[in-house]
Amino acid sequence: MFSPRSFLTVLLVGVASVAWAASAPTEKKSAAKSPNPLVWDAMEKTVPANAGDGAAEFRFSVSNTADQPVEIREIRTSCGCTVAEMPASPWVLAPGGQGSFRATVDIRGRFGKFFKTMMVVSSAGAQVLAVTVDIAPFPELTRDENRARALGDRQAVFRGACYSCHVEPIGGKQGALLFDAACAICHEANPRAEMVPDLRSARGPRDAAFWRTWITEGREKTLMPAFGEHQGGPLSEAQIESLVVWALKSLPTEPAK
Ligand code: HEC
Ligand code: HEC
Predict the structure, then answer these.
(1) Percent of the chain beyond pLDDT 70?
(2) CB-based contact 37:66 (threshold 8 Å)
(3) Which of 114, 146, 165 gets mutated to test ligand 1 (max ligand atoms within 8 A of its CB)?
(4) Which residue owns the Cα nearest ligand 1 atom 32?
C-alpha cells in the first residue's frame, strides 16, 4: 500500500493542501502552520478499471488525532463525475475517532488515466484527496469490429452495445462538456483513427452553417454519424447550437497560413 512513490505523492499532496489552506484568504495564519489532525489512510489512491465499466469506487479512512472533536462539513469534488458520500452531514469525529467514506467516479466514456481531486473541508482546515482511475485501453480487436459495424451503418454508434460509451455520457450536456462527451471520443482519440479528421485544424473556412450541417447530418458512407434528432441522433437542436457556438469560439475558423 505504502510504496515509496505513493509516500512521495502523499507528501506532495500534503504540501499542496497546506499551501491551499495557507492561500485561502479567510484562513488564519496559525491554522496553516499546525498539521491537520485528520490523518487519512492515503491522500492519493489509484484503482484499475476496464473501458466500458460504469464507475470506479474508492474508500478513504480517517482518524482524528486531535484531543477535541473535528467536524467534516463538506467533501467538495472537482467535477460532477465524482460523488463523495459522507456517513453523516456534518460528519463529526470524536477525539481518537475513526471513520471512512466512499467516493464514486463516473468513468463512462473515459479512457486512460482519469485523475480527480476532492477537498475535505473541516473545522481543522482543508485537505485535498486525489483519486486516479487507471482505465485499461479498449482492445484493438473490438475497435476494428466496431469500425466495421459503423461502416455498414454510421448510426449504429447510437444504439445497442455502442450506447454506453457513445451516447450515455452525453445526457443534457452543452458546449465544451458536450464536445468532450459526444465528439472527442472519435475526434480526440489517442491514437485517432486515420479516417477521423483532427478538428483542431481547419481544412477550409468553417462558419456556423459548416458546424451545424456536419453535426446534424454527418456524412453518408463515412464513420461520421448524424447527431440530429430527425436522423435518429441523440442531440436536440439546442445542444447542436451550443456546440456551434463553442466550436466557433474555441476551434480555428480558417486554415492555418
Ligand atoms: C467501451 C466503450 C465503447 C463502446 C462500447 C464502443 N465504442 Fe466506439 N469508440 C470508443 C473509443 C474510446 C473510441 C476512440 C478510439 C479508441 O480509443 O479505441 C471509439 C471510436 C469509435 C469510432 C471511430 C473510429 C476509431 O476506431 O477510432 C467508431 C466508428 C466507433 N467507435 C464505433 C462504435 C460502434 C459502432 C460501437 C458499437 C458496436 C462502439 N463504437 C462501441 C469507445 C467505445
Ligand atoms: C463515431 C466517430 C465520430 C464521432 C462520435 C464524431 N465524428 Fe465527426 N467525423 C468522423 C469521421 C470519420 C469524419 C470524416 C468524414 C469524412 O470522411 O468526410 C468526421 C468528420 C467531421 C467533420 C468534418 C471535418 C472536416 O474538416 O471536413 C466535422 C466538422 C465533425 N466531424 C464534427 C464532429 C462533431 C462536432 C462531433 C460531435 C457532435 C463529431 N464530429 C462526432 C467521426 C466521428
Answers:
(1) 85
(2) yes
(3) 146
(4) 146
The separation between the first and the last C-alpha atoms of the chain, rounded to the nearest angstrom, is 52
Question: Could you read off the pLDDT of 26-54 as tens digits, one per residue?
Answer: 444 444 457 999 999 999 999 999 877 88
Give the pocket of ligand 2 (CB within 6 Å): 157, 182-183, 185-187, 195-197, 199, 203, 214-215, 219, 222-225, 227, 243
At 205, list the grid cell.
Answer: 473556412
Integer-rounded Cα radius of gyration of the chain: 23
CA distance 231 to 235: 10
Q: Counting every residue, how long is the chain? A: 257
The predicted-structure confidence for 124-136, as pLDDT tens digits, reads as follows 999 999 999 998 8
Residue type, 220: E
**Ligand 1 centroid, distance to 249 Cα (angstroms):** 27
Could you identify the atom of ligand 1 that is nearest to the CA of residue 159? 37
190, three cell numbers: 489517442
